[in-house]
């Protein structure tokens, strides 16, 4: 079982990998806020993610949520020793209010999803899918944007 410090270090390494391998993530100045077994949170400063109106660019919001969901799945796979490719299979985004400052995304397992089912399916079939719910909190505590996504993991054999 990994400790919180180990989880944070592994998450930092994953975020550095994302920044190094995905030019968009580097340009967004993606940063880790928090990672544990249940949630992964990423931050993006407003400066490199601003639109023509001076608020957060919608493409940056959806990218941050997608990357935080992907990273949550990737961290779970690494924690249990699975070497997989992870893809976003489908997603639905809602933009609810503009953001005028740095913003963060929180990715969690969707209420109807189960890591146990995901890993059992992955072990049996070599691929599995999982639903992830992401939110970008707004100024008033209500969501500024949400993303519901299905990620697929496929064993690298």
From TrEMBL:
Residues in coiled coil: none
Source species, domain of life: Bacteria
Domain Thioesterase putative positions: 12-154
Family annotation (Pfam families): YiiD_C (PF09500)
TM annotation in the entry: none
Protein name per its UniProtKB record: YiiD C-terminal domain-containing protein
Originating organism: Rhodanobacter umsongensis
